[in-house]
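Reading group handout, session on sequence-to-structure problems. Before we discuss, look at one worked example. The prompt was deliberately terse, the way you'd type it at a terminal:

> structure 3-hydroxyisobutyrate dehydrogenase

The input record follows.
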Amino acid sequence: MLHIAFFGLGNMGAGMAANLLKAGYKVSVFDLVQAQVDKLCALGASAGDTPADTVKNADIIISMLPAGRHVEQLYFGTADATMGIVARARAGAIFIDCSTIEAQTARSMSSLLKERGHSFVDAPVSGGVAGAAAGTLTFIVGGSAQTVEAVNPVLQAMGKNIFHAGEAGAGQVAKICNNMLLAVLMAGTSEALQLAIDNGIDAAVMSDIMKKSSGNNWTLQTYNPCPGVMENVPSSNQYQGGFMVDLMNKDLGLAMATAATHQSAVPMGSLAQSLYQLHGMQGNGKKDFSSIFQAFRPKG
Ligand code: NAD
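And the output record:
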């Protein structure tokens, strides 16, 4: 039986690791938050005391961490490269990083792992917390065709659609293009809904109209930002859980940096970044990103 080590059991990682257990894999887990580790152990995972302990004998190592610096630190340690999990992994282990990070960091980690006899794919995801829990995520993968094929069954246990975007780093580039569009759609949908509300139209009625009209998009279908329109989404739970504004701001920063490399014009993404940065600065960083809806609400 394949042994998978899983790092990062937050909003996304907890559901993903649970689905690997459901699929029958042997899973060892590690997170800085003990309660998250305990949750997965109750489902059948084993817990490593240290990251090194967790990767011992693992065939596949998955990370689902906030940002690139967390992944680099986990892989290579801080000052001493022997402290990271790369130095402790068994020969020929395959590393799958599902976090959303800089494409350049993914490329350089891929080269460093290759030099040490391991393989790597960047495999960021789309589909949100609900998709992670239901095992219906979309994986956007960068790496060699051979490694992508080797990890396919593992990704299938956590997702529904697996796309091979290109060589190492390509998964990250494709992912941030998608998330830049998501930020634009969430801000635009919020603005349109509030315009309707200000003019006496019920938000649920307006959402139904747009879902059957040319304004239809993912935020209306599965993640309505207006409280009370949909059940089981962050907007109906005080914007708790889901995808944090801080993480959306990280992704928009990655999108702007990527745009700068080839002088791509991204005026809509840039405006969405300004909106989300202001929203984050107003104390909303830990809320779900659909809380941008609140920025359009009349105050007082
Ligand atoms: P989160 O903050 O909920 O979870 C991150 C987890 O990593 C936390 O439990 C934290 O304790 C843990 N962690 C941090 N450093 C660690 C380390 N060194 N070792 C082990 N664990 C460590 O974040 P999330 O929402 O699950 O997002 C994770 C990644 O997925 C991010 O890169 C995000 O951009 C991306 N993403 C999130 C969503 C979403 O809807 N939440 C959707 C797609 C992609």
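Points for discussion. First: The pocket of nicotinamide-adenine-dinucleotide is lined by residues 7-13, 30-33, 36, 64-66, 70, 74, 99-100, 125-126, 128-129, 242-243, 247 (CB under 6 Å). Second: The first strand starts at residue 3 and ends at 7.
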